[in-house]
Amino acid sequence: MIIVLKNNADAQKVEELKQTLTGKGFKLHLSQGENTTIIGLIGDTSNISEDWLYAKDVVDSVKRIKEPYKKANRDMHPSDTVVDIGGVKIGGGSFAVIAGPCSVETRPQMIEVAEDVKSSGAQLLRGGAFKPRTSPYSFQGLGSEGLKLLKEAKKATGLPIVTEIMQIGHLDLFEDVDVIQVGTRNMQNFELLKELGKTKKPILLKRGMANTLEELLMSAEYIMAGGNEQVILCERGIRTFETSMRNTLDISAVPMLKKKTHLPVIIDPSHAAGLKFMVEPLTMAAIAAGADGVMIEVHNNPEKALCDGMQSLTPKMFDDLMNKVKKTVPFFGKTMAAQVPVNR
Question: For 297, phi and psi rounded to 5 degrees?
């Protein structure tokens, strides 16, 4: 349930209302906009009367939320959430580019790619230390050693790092990671999501390859219900009957999510198709659809990559793409609100 307060509502009466509501067992989600203040009620609101609320002098309107996700709901938080990662902003009109190899392989590789993507304009560095693979015989990542190499690349370039967590037991290893990624296979690992909700780190939550948008938002709700509201949603392609590409990018997910939630939405064009020649057009489509950023795989020698070489761009290809991104997004790295309207 959402309670919209009147403009210039008496502060003491608002505080009394809040205390009454918490006394009834509700958790409150407060959203302060430029012209509107909203109190979101979290809990079973079936027994609370709308007439009782309208009788309060400070209440302007009341609305019941039908969707099962509350904290992630745009009705609860009309303004876009902006996730700040060491000065890099994702959401609210800013456009961010995350780039780096699929997996961390060696120190020279990681440093070289990090320096290359930074020089081209990437604001965050990605790299997999722990790799979920379909085959048990495929390269599974360097684990904790990979995290160390990521930190070295961050030290060399200053780029915040994004990497995927596989299990709760690894959480302590991610203390120096700037953004914790939850991959498609763990989108509904609810125990992991609960633990991530207790952290203070931004979480990049990828959509499952066979999950609906509501299921994605419910997974975000698990994290937010734990107290961590720094969630970034990632559309990375879904499994369809099409066999000419790895997955099918659901570009329509961007405007639909923008309508349903205040959380930032980014696109992973590399995993969407699994083919490097498609990364550029899918990136441009993401910008046109109003995405808040993209995450792109870049490798200094894709032919010898230990993981996903077919979808990895070379540093030169990435640089060419970034030049097009900068032309398409005139205020790249600052704000693009005036150039790419948010569809709601």
Answer: -90, 130
Instruction: Tell which wins on pLDDT, 155 or 45.
Output: 155
Cβ-based neighbours of 209, under 8 Å, separated by 6 or more: 184, 236, 237, 238, 239, 247
Q: How is residue 120 written in tokens? A: 């081209």
CB of 38 closer than 8 Å to CB of 30: yes
Looking from the CA of 106 toward its CB, the CA atoms found within 13 Å total 9
Six token digits for residue 330: 């005139």
3-state SS class at 75: coil
Pick from 83, 81, 101: nearest CA to 33: 81
- What's the half-sphere exposure (Cβ side, CA atoms, 13 Å) at 331? 9
Token pair 């070295």: residue: 152
Q: Which residues pair with 5 in a beta bridge?
A: 37, 59
Q: Which residue would you say has higher pLDDT here, 341 or 161?
A: 161
Rounded Cα distance between 318 and 289, Å, is 21
Lowest-confidence range among 52-66, 90-104, 123-137, 149-163? 123-137
187-239 pLDDT per residue, tens: 999 999 999 999 999 999 999 999 999 999 999 999 999 999 999 999 999 99
